[in-house]
Amino acid sequence: MQPEAVRSFLTSLQDQIVAALEAVDGQRFRRDTWERPEGGGGDTRIIEEGQVFERGGVAFSHVHGTRLPPSASAHRPELAGRAFQAMGVSLVLHPRNPYVPTVHMNVRFFCAYPKEGENPGAQAEPRWWFGGGMDLTPYYGFEEDARHFHAVCRKALEPFGPEYYPRFKRWCDQYFYLQHRGEPRGIGGIFFDDFSDKGFEHSFALARSVGSHFLEAYLPIVERRRGLSYGERERDFQAYRRGRYVEFNLVYDRGTLFGLQSGGRTESILMSLPPIVRWRYGWAPAPGTPEARLYEEFLKPRDWV
């Protein structure tokens, strides 16, 4: 296990992604470094009112503490109360043009340490795991974009075994699902958690590949759609669908819950929320419209590749 190597990769990944996004947008990200009283800190890069991105953030954090937060031990109760360290890069981009989809990506690493006085043995060893993935949330659906995004997700996982893409794709469909709405957040992608397959080197290499394929998965879609003309109708629907994004992040998202429960920096945790959102009571798009097509053809699990 090499936490220093993970941190080095994550900070380099953040720099690489931010530089590429600045080249696309033409505006620089604002840098905001912070410290956490209990231990650790982070580096949040933010863009607002850009040429392409209405709001976006690419954040690195590395925190540690004496007790693993409940959100991180819910699926592994034997680790409750252990000291921990956690690090990751997380990004969310909300473009201004409604034809350009919102995107999310993160890669994270956790390590939980034995409690003082814990009996020696397998359960007293440090426990580590990786998590992450990327998913796409369009407001207007394009099959070409969905197929491209999923093809790159599959490409990122192929070197590690043919079973990972279908497994992580299904996991993503299940995770990014708003149970109270009965609908997915978007068209999915890949998602994995509690990942420690075949030892540290294998698991770390897979997580690196996911993070390193993000720009290839997303930027071609941005370039195809950024110049499409739109009006108030499209912006209104974008704001309405962004409401679903807010609902998921505040109700279900494990990263948001972990950040708030661990005493992280609230501004950096909630950077994922869009700047303009609208809710309507009992609204549905008219049949035969592009807005209705999003629900009928895209907001359902599909095998895109």
Automatic annotation (TrEMBL):
Predominant subcellular localization, coarse grouping: cytoplasm
Enzyme Commission no: 1.3.3.3
Sequence positions that bind substrate: 90, 106-108, 263-265
Site (described: Important for dimerization): 180
Region (Important for dimerization): 245-280
Keywords assigned: Cytoplasm, Heme biosynthesis, Metal-binding, Oxidoreductase, Porphyrin biosynthesis
Pathway in which this enzyme or protein is active: Porphyrin-containing compound metabolism; protoporphyrin-IX biosynthesis; protoporphyrinogen-IX from coproporphyrinogen-III (O2 route): step 1/1
GO process annotations (BP): protoporphyrinogen IX biosynthetic process
Active site: 104
Molecular-function annotations in GO: coproporphyrinogen oxidase activity; metal ion binding; protein homodimerization activity
Catalyzed reactions: coproporphyrinogen III + O2 + 2 H(+) = protoporphyrinogen IX + 2 CO2 + 2 H2O
Entry binding sites for a divalent metal cation: 94, 104, 150, 180
Domain of life: Bacteria
Cofactor(s) needed: a divalent metal cation
Subcellular location: Cytoplasm
Cellular component terms (Gene Ontology): cytoplasm
Description of how the protein assembles with itself and partners: Homodimer.
Similarity comment: Belongs to the aerobic coproporphyrinogen-III oxidase family.
Family annotation (HAMAP family): Coprogen_oxidas (MF_00333)
Function: Involved in the heme biosynthesis. Catalyzes the aerobic oxidative decarboxylation of propionate groups of rings A and B of coproporphyrinogen-III to yield the vinyl groups in protoporphyrinogen-IX.
Protein name (Swiss-Prot/TrEMBL): Oxygen-dependent coproporphyrinogen-III oxidase
